[in-house]
Amino acid sequence: MEQWIQHATERGLIVEVDKENPAEREGALYGVSVSDHPWYEGGVAFDWSPLHSMLKASAVYQPSASLDNVAEGSVLTSMEIVRPWEMCPLNVAASKMSCFLEKRNEPNSRLFRFVKGGRGEQTARADIARVLHGVAAQLSAGGLDARIDLSTIVIVGQSTGNAFDTLLKQTGAAYRALKDAGLAIDAAQSNLEPRAVISYGNNRWSTLDYRSLKDDDVPGFLVDALYCWLDDRCAWRCEAPLAATAEAIHREFMRLLAAVARNPGVVTVTLTVDVQRRQLVDAAAPLLVSRAAAPPGQRRWSRLELRRFVHLVGLDQ
Fold first, then answer.
1. At CA 64, angle to CA 186 and CA 187, rounded to 5?
2. What CA–CA distance (Å, rounded) separates 178 from 183?
3. Which residue, 23, 97, 135, 279, is most buried by CB atoms nearer than 10 A?
4. What residue spans of 109-245 are helical by DSSP H?
5. Three-state SS for 216?
6. 294 CB-near residues (< 8 Å, 6+ apart)
7. What is the pLDDT of residues 32-90, one digit of tens each?
8. Which superkingdom is the protein from (predicted)?
């Protein structure tokens, strides 16, 4: 926690406030908490649910609607924005309600508040979504077919002619435009080279053929998919974080396996066979505990492809 607070302060995400000041101390009454958590990005988790329970319920969030009409045979690229939560300042009222104690229930704990959107806060989510959709609109105005999926900018190419070369040039232009605008791109979680859209039926698609995954790759892929889903649940669905226990992460992994088993043929491994399922769980166990991910140079799937998998097996329904 101390390291995260130091880094967040240096990046201008949070500021320390005087907890003896009644106006500042009042913000802590909204119950926002930040805690060490091994299962989430950056090793910390944000629980905004006490604050959100006092606010007007937000509309059902449907982030992937713009990707519903991507045609089979199209080619596309994806660019993953680094820490989009740090793009938008919070308004004064939202900032005051975002106060949190460094260590809850300790009298000498320092008090902080967010000045830029905290990951998973509803107001911040709405602001960031507007910014990213505005970016996509500007790219589209320049002749690109740009879509947004959470923190990913997707450039869709046509399925005719020299689509690959055209999309490669368009992606290069979009990448430079985003960098010039101050947006950082996580190349390791992006697909900067065009990939073909593969249909799985019922308007479900991806640019990764999950059925082609080698048996040795399946445990690591499923662990990556699970952690992607857990981060998105907190960050974009604004749900409370999972309990920080090995039992909780194991239970979520079994939920993912059950969802995969309900969709036979998505991956080659047969999860309906008890022996194979136990072997997969055993292989994934050390990766789950350490939240291990493939090194950037070895990652073979993008953030978009992990999200499409979660959507394909219905885990996000």
1. 10
2. 5
3. 97
4. 122-141, 163-180, 218-235
5. coil
6. 220, 224, 300
7. 777 777 778 778 888 888 888 877 655 545 555 678 788 888 899 999 999 888 888 88
8. Eukaryota
Identify residue 109 by its one-letter amino acid code. S
For the stretch 87-135, pLDDT in tens is: 888 888 888 888 888 877 777 888 898 999 888 888 888 888 888 889 9
Q: Where does residue 264 rank: exposed (0-12), middle (13-18), buried (19+ CB within 10 A)?
A: exposed
Q: What is the CATH number of domain 65-85+122-201?
A: 3.30.70
What does the DSSP 8-state code read for residue 39?
T
**Both ends of the chain: CA-CA distance in Å?**
32
Q: Please state the domain extents for the chain.
A: 2-58+89-114, 65-85+122-201, 205-312
> Residue 150 in contact with residue 232, Cβ under 8 Å?
yes
Taking the C-alpha atoms of residue 191 and residue 303, their distance in angstroms, rounded to an integer, is 9
**pTM for the predicted model, two decimal places:** 0.89
